[in-house]
């Protein structure tokens, strides 16, 4: 039996399809029954609605240990996809509780229930920091606690530390660090936010780089790693490193709309995150653009994907079809 946390999210829902296609018995952890409908839409879109009824839905929360003890019954493998994604500093405590404490709970249950293997979905945000004059980050790049990191990145790094603790205690683990994930089903989250911004005619761009990947590639790498004897390794999952301008142009071309045309330099983004802070202060709205995200928008770090390509002899999907896909929404 395989347990999938975060089963009602982008990665989790697409992962369910792949696991069921391989005739696995799958438990899917959910918190809100309404979110299951979105998973059904993903199955329907991918012409696998017949597999949907094979899912064993289990209500639970990674921060609620009693619900996890029920979910972990008869489980041999775990894909831990659940996480809180937020860039609002007000969510710092919740990020730590969900991403770090929640992952610690998953690791502890894996050990207590003698689970064979755990796959943790982390993020490129948790990878290390390139040193001065370096432009490439790999799985071996060291995290520098003196550098500015957003609360989300810190929480994902902390979660990885919990997974490595489990590995030291005898649990077989693999970690994947995907970039921004493109895929069908969740247009209001993740990459969908980027696409919607372009759709609305956002004229601004920065000269930073962004690492992107298709959700199917993430899922295929995860299942291949879990079906292998590999343990104690992490893998960067990025198919392309694009400038924000190139990404926005490719999306805009598929939408047949105007390209962004105003370069947002560091001075402008510095003003923008301060304005965002002020508006959040007086309106109570969540932060959308912080000091950390402003810094990241100018970063020209290249995420190296050689390790996963060499390990699995993996070929990434052409991302162009995903930009076309969003044009159909």
Automatic annotation (TrEMBL):
Q: Which Pfam families match?
A: Epimerase (PF01370)
Point out the coiled-coil segments of this chain. Answer: none
Question: Which region is the signal sequence?
Answer: none
- Classification via InterPro entries: Epimerase_deHydtase, NAD(P)-bd_dom_sf, NAD(P)-dependent_oxidoreduct
Q: Where is the NAD-dependent epimerase/dehydratase domain?
A: 2-233
The superkingdom listed in its UniProt entry is: Bacteria
Q: What is this protein called?
A: NAD-dependent epimerase/dehydratase family protein
């Amino acid at each position: 039996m395989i347990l999938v946390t975060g089963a009602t999210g982008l990665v989790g829902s697409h992962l369910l399809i792949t696991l069921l296609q391989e005739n696995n018995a799958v438990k899917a952890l959910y918190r809100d029954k309404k979110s299951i409908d979105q998973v059904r839409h993903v199955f329907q879109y991918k012409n696998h609605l017949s597999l949907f009824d094979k899912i064993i839905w289990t209500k639970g929360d990674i921060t609620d240990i009693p619900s996890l003890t029920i979910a972990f019954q008869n489980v041999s493998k775990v894909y831990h996809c659940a996480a809180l994604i937020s860039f609002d500093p007000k969510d710092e405590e919740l990020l730590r509780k969900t991403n770090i404490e929640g992952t610690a709970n998953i690791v502890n249950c894996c050990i207590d229930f003698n689970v064979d293997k755990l796959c943790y979905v982390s993020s490129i945000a948790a990878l290390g920091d390139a040193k001065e004059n370096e432009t490439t980050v790999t799985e071996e790049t060291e995290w520098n606690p003196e550098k500015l990191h957003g609360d989300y990145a810190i929480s994902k790094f902390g979660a990885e530390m919990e997974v490595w603790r489990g590995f030291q205690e005898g649990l077989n683990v693999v970690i994947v660090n995907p970039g921004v994930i493109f895929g069908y089903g969740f247009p209001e989250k993740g990459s969908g936010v980027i696409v919607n911004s372009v759709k609305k005619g956002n004229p601004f761009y920065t000269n930073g780089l962004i690492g992107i990947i298709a959700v199917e590639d993430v899922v295929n790498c995860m299942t291949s790693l879990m079906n292998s004897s590999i343990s104690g390794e992490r893998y960067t999952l990025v198919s392309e490193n694009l400038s924000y301008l190139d990404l926005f142009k490719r999306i805009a071309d598929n939408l047949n709309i105007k390209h962004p045309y105003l370069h947002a330099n560091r001075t402008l983004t510095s003003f923008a995150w301060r304005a965002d802070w002020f508006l959040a202060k007086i309106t109570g709205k969540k932060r959308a653009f912080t000091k950390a995200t402003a810094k990241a928008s100018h970063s020209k770090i290249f995420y190296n994907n050689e390790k996963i390509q060499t390990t699995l002899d993996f070929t990434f999907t052409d991302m162009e079809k995903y930009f076309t896909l969003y044009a159909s929404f």
